[in-house]
Amino acid sequence: MKAYVTLLTSESYVPGALTLAKTLKQLKTENKLAVLLDLSLISGHSMALINKAFDDVIQINDQKLTAPLEKVAAKLGREELAVTYSKILLWNLDKYDQIIYLDADTLPLNNLDHLFDKYESLPATEIVASPDIGWPDIFNSGVLILKPSKPVFDKLIEHSETQDASFDGADQGLLNEFFHLQDKGHSWKRLPFVYNVTPSAHYQYRPALTRFFSEINLVHFIGGQKPWQDKSAEKDPFQQLWWEKFNSFFTKEHDRIKLLSTLPTEGYNLKFTKLVNEWDKVKEETHLPHLDELSLGDATKLFPWEHREQFAPTRVFNKVDVASETGSVKSKKVALEDPSPASQSTTQPLNQKYDQFTNKTKFDPERSLEEVSQIPLKMLSKKK
């Protein structure tokens, strides 16, 4: 019995795994579809869809294998890849005579059943895989053809516990070390790149991609950003193709909302060491000064105008003493009201000339306007 197998360890890859399974069925595969599944982060809704899409759901909650987290983080910067060590479990699926393993972020474009026939006589000590786009002298572990074997499984487990088990900290480094780079009696057989095309934003040989585009059998969406997580309007042709597949398979709004919601990655399933706030430790060990003891110093200049040079004033205006300037002129106060008899001067006050201001109750706006308008004429007549 032969089967396509994928690995699913969190809710975040469910859209990819379901689209993969439904695409293989759409391409009319005659072989079983199986999934190595960690149920700890899978929702009931996703579980129902998975049971419909796959023929064989293999629970690995208690068997899941995890790489040393520190090495994966240091070498790849992607802690979620630590759980990909669980691919070792493929060699323990001895109920299948042959397996084609496909990552959940792959999308077949053509029927791949002919690969089972082509590599039917493959010994258990060999693995078939395409070269990696980043370093073609090693293979990419997103597409693998293998034969399950208990002896090989035991050796892989033993190898995974050694000091230099994986050069990248994850499954690809581990499997390359075991089947290709270290002399352990195992070997890698090259699969043409068209069976695992990994276009990358960092590197893409577009002329070759154009030349062999019609021969591509499978696309692998490598990297941290997957098609179902990409919310940008502009997508490359392969991402558009993935969305066309997904949209045709999942037409119910309820299913789409559930599958495309923000979901935790595999890293959520890992055991992280509790972090300690260093600031809290400092407060406990040292005496911190009070706020009034602190000196802020010169404020940082943020804006351009704060950097202008300061100049001392070159012109200074002093207060002028009118009496000292004129010698005999004294300031007089002018009141609009009638002056009192005691303070009455020989000069006729302004309000006596325009008596309409004498009593506020007798104010006549029209008369005031008329008199004010005549002032320029009187001044002109005096000049003449």
What report would you give on this structure?
A 5-stranded mixed β-sheet has the order 3-2-1-4-7, with helices on one face. Helix 1 packs parallel to helix 2 and helix 1 (14-26) packs across helix 8 (237-249). The chain has 13 helices and 9 strands. With 384 residues, the chain is an alpha/beta fold. 28% of the residues are buried.
| Averaged pLDDT | 78
Q: Determine the fraction of residues in helical runs and give it as a percent range.
A: 25-40%
**Strand percentage, roughly?**
5-15%
Number-wise, the strands total 9
Straight-line distance between termini = 127 Å
What's the CATH H-level superfamily name of the largest domain?
Spore Coat Polysaccharide Biosynthesis Protein SpsA, Chain A
Count of separate DSSP helical elements: 13
- Radius of gyration computed on alpha carbons: 43 Å
Element-by-element helix/strand order: EHEHEHEEHEEHHEHEHHHHHH
CATH class of the largest domain: Alpha Beta
Shape: elongated
Strand order of the largest sheet: 3-2-1-4-7
Q: Provide the structure class.
A: alpha/beta
Number of domains: 2
CATH topology group of the largest domain: Spore Coat Polysaccharide Biosynthesis Protein SpsA, Chain A
Largest sheet: 5 strands, mixed
Low-confidence stretches: 67-82, 264-276, 342-346, 350-354
Instruction: Give the name of the CATH architecture of the largest domain.
Output: Alpha-Beta Complex
